[in-house]
């Protein structure tokens, strides 16, 4: 047998379909199933583990305007804006992971609105879905807007630090928001107006 004959024998025949893409696809599917199984079963493996170890992948997904306030109840030029919801996977997340996801949503909202808004903040409620909002309406600030979008008891919301979109600097929590929300609903080190209720502590 000549070398030329061996080389010709390895060339795939046009009648036979190439099996390599099929095998690679099957291998990827098997690996994904194995990784998915071990991630989902991580909390069952250790008795001390209190949450499922989910991947750190975060996807920003702008969704349609959430209507919790009827259009006739809007004041001023407050228009319905899309929420920024961050899909963090189906597994339970720790408070730090939810706060980080809310910060990602806040930063995405700040990049979207740019200089048109003064303050942007984020937060999450009991459902664990981070949201970010900003507001220029006379019915409240960004924290109030996040609370309206999340719904439920405002005391169950955990907020991010508020930021100025054009600079990225932290904005101190105003006196009115200090009267509405508890300091424990914000991350440690969050700036606040010292003349407000939190400054009296």
Task: Report the strand count.
Answer: 7
Question: Which strand order spans the largest sheet, edge to edge or round the barrel?
Answer: 1-2-4-3-5
Radius of gyration: 25 Å
Query: Based on CA inertia axes, which overall geometry fits?
Result: elongated
Class inferred from helices and paired strands: alpha+beta
**pLDDT average, as an integer?**
72
Number of helices: 6
Which percent bin holds the helix content? 25-40%
Please give the alpha-carbon distance between the first and last residues.
92 Å
Brief summary of the model shown:
Residues 122-153 are annotated as: Disordered. The protein contains 6 helices and 7 strands.
Describe this structure in words.
33% of the residues lie in helices and 14% in strands. About 26% of the residues have low confidence. With 201 residues, it is of the alpha+beta class. It is elongated, with a radius of gyration of 25 Å. The termini are far apart. It has a domain of 130 residues.
Write the layout of secondary structure elements.
Layout: H1 3-10, H2 20-40, H3 42-45, E1 59-65, E2 82-87, H4 95-113, E3 120-124, E4 131-134, H5 142-150, E5 158-159, E6 162-163, E7 170-171, H6 175-180
Antiparallel strand pairs: 1-2, 2-4, 3-4, 3-5, 6-7
Using brief descriptors, characterize the structure shown:
two-stranded antiparallel sheet, 201 residues, alpha+beta, elongated
